[in-house]
Design brief:
By secondary structure, this protein is an alpha+beta fold. The chain is built from four helices and ten strands. The strands form two sheets. The chain has an eight-stranded antiparallel beta sheet, covered by helices on one side. Helix 1 crosses helix 3. 28% of the residues are buried.
């Protein structure tokens, strides 16, 4: 049976976590295992917040430092994963209306299993000694277990995500699923680099953890 034709009660099982970082414009259900991230919490419009800029800079600096430390210690050449974001607000309608100043967020980058709390602590001291990154002390290593989730690929500017999000939410409802946007947070995975790609070519996986209606 084609995965897109499978009943939503049969959550897709993946052989590789990397496959969770692929999506199509057609929504589908996935099973997300516990994954480990470096993350930083914040609030406000990412387009105007210096806190957001500092958070992203710290995440990438530490993730590349971890990559090089792992290669030096073990010879493994691990990849730096894409930037991801968890988003929520007191009023979840702000994601459709675009009131970004009301948003809370956790920006994060997935880490290899070899990245431990001790390694993060050591690398934080080393990176801070080389460059000024005010968000480094706010970094935390955290395991996130989303479980069942629906996801879809959005192609285009981040500001135009509204209709894609609405379509994903409608798909969730139509398949007898629900979500609570504060615990089951709106999740975005940024496959494109806005510094290098034209806005029309940006690719973003929009993921929404969800559960059967009867369990909420």
């Amino acid at each position: 049976m084609d995965p897109e034709e499978a009943p939503v009660t049969t959550t897709m099982q993946y052989d590789s976590v990397e496959q969770l970082y692929r999506a199509t414009p057609t929504p589908r259900l996935v099973r997300v295992p516990p994954l480990t991230f470096l993350g930083i919490d914040g609030h406000g419009d990412p387009n105007t917040s210096q806190t957001y800029v500092d958070a992203v800079s710290a995440l990438f600096s530490m993730s590349y430092a971890a990559k090089f430390a792992i290669k030096k210690a073990s010879g493994q050449n691990v990849k730096v994963s894409p930037l991801e974001g968890l988003w929520w607000a007191d009023d979840m309608e702000t994601f459709l209306t675009g009131r970004k100043s009301d948003w809370d967020w956790t920006m994060m980058i997935r880490q290899p299993d070899l990245v431990t709390g001790d390694l993060v602590e050591r690398l934080a001291a080393e990176v801070s000694a080389k460059k000024s990154l005010p968000a480094i002390p706010d970094l935390r290593l955290v395991a996130i277990a989303e479980g069942t989730a629906a996801q879809v690929l959005h192609v285009g500017p981040y500001a135009d995500e509204g209709p894609t999000i609405e379509r994903l939410h409608a798909w969730i409802r139509d398949h007898g699923l629900v979500f609570e946007g504060h615990h089951q947070k709106h999740h975005e995975i940024y496959l494109g680099d806005p510094r290098r790609a034209a806005p029309a070519k940006l690719r973003t996986i929009i993921r929404q953890p969800c559960s059967p209606a009867k369990s909420v």
